[in-house]
């Protein structure tokens, strides 16, 4: 991949995006904490308090936040990488550089914004007695790898299409809207298993987002329940399937990207 050979250019793009993200903002980097905190409070009040999930799911705040931060990582990485080519249209028309740098750098910036939220989660988990095993920690890394790989692949696919067909962004917005509810971020997987047929539940588990969220729950939430929480079945199996699907999406996204990139400068 050209991105690996142009690491210096990639670092410049990442630095540029990080620096201009909150330029002119009073709170600046504090928004990396304010936005997820506000989202967490809204969902916790609506689901945890009003729908009483806080009573039925042990340590529901940890369960909720560990799922939210990883799905937010996907939403931000996917959304930003899809827009990255159009947003950098002036640069693409002036000079040549590997176009893949733009969606990849947007995904890495999303990872940078994800880190403060991850730190908060780790600190809170440690306070309430978090004691994960090595496989559980490995599962969290696998979950993050699934999310970033899938986001880059989809970002390349829809980003390339978005250059010529700007309504592609509307499809991305729909996917992002559905993503939070199509994986067990706000509810437990058992609620899905009770209602849908087995074959639908299998498709639900194969979804890379579901696998990633379940792995994050297993790494952060489950150790705080002292083994009383309910883990999704075959976590590692579906995690590896999710990674395989994400790699397939990345391959398809790169092929489409290469096919369409010759028209980027013209269409922009």
Structure description:
This protein starts with a helix and ends with a helix. The model has no long low-confidence stretch (mean pLDDT 86). Helix content is 78%, strand content 0%. The chain has one domain (2-267). The chain contains 14 helices and no strands. The protein has 268 residues and is an all-alpha fold. Keywords: Cell inner membrane, Cell membrane, Membrane, Transmembrane, Transmembrane helix, Transport. It comes from Mycetocola zhadangensis. This is Transport permease protein. InterPro entries: ABC2_TM (IPR013525), ABC2_TM_bact-type (IPR047817).
What labels would you give this structure?
single chain, 268 residues, mainly alpha, 14 helices, 78% helix, globular, ABC2_TM, ABC-type transporter activity, transmembrane helix
Strand content: under 5%
Report the mean per-residue pLDDT as an integer: 86
Order of helices and strands: HHHHHHHHHHHHHH
Q: Radius of gyration from the CA trace?
A: 19 Å
């Amino acid at each position: 991949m050209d991105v690996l050979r142009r690491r210096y250019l990639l670092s410049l793009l990442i630095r540029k995006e990080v620096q201009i993200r909150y330029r002119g903002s009073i709170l600046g980097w504090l928004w990396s904490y304010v936005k997820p905190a506000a989202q967490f409070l809204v969902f916790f009040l609506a689901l945890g308090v009003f729908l009483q999930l806080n009573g039925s799911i042990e340590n529901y705040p940890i369960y909720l936040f560990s799922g939210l931060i990883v799905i937010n990582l996907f939403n931000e990485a996917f959304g930003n990488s899809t827009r990255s080519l159009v947003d950098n249209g002036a640069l693409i028309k002036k000079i040549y550089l590997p176009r893949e740098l733009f969606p990849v750098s947007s995904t890495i910036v999303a990872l940078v914004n994800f880190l403060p939220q991850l730190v908060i989660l780790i600190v809170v988990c440690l306070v309430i007695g978090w004691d994960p095993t090595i496989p559980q920690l490995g599962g969290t890394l696998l979950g993050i790898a699934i999310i970033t790989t899938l986001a880059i692949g989809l970002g390349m696919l829809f980003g390339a299409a978005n250059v010529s067909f700007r309504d592609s962004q509307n499809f991305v917005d729909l996917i992002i809207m559905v993503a939070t509810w199509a994986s067990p971020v706000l509810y437990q997987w058992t609620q899905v298993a009770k209602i849908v047929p087995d074959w639908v539940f299998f498709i639900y588990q194969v979804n890379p987002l579901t696998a990633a969220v379940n792995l994050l729950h297993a790494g952060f939430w489950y150790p705080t329940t002292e083994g009383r929480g309910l883990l999704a079945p075959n976590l590692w199996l579906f995690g590896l399937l999710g990674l395989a699907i994400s790699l397939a999406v990345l391959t398809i996204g790169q092929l489409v990207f290469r096919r369409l990139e010759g028209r980027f400068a013209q269409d922009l």
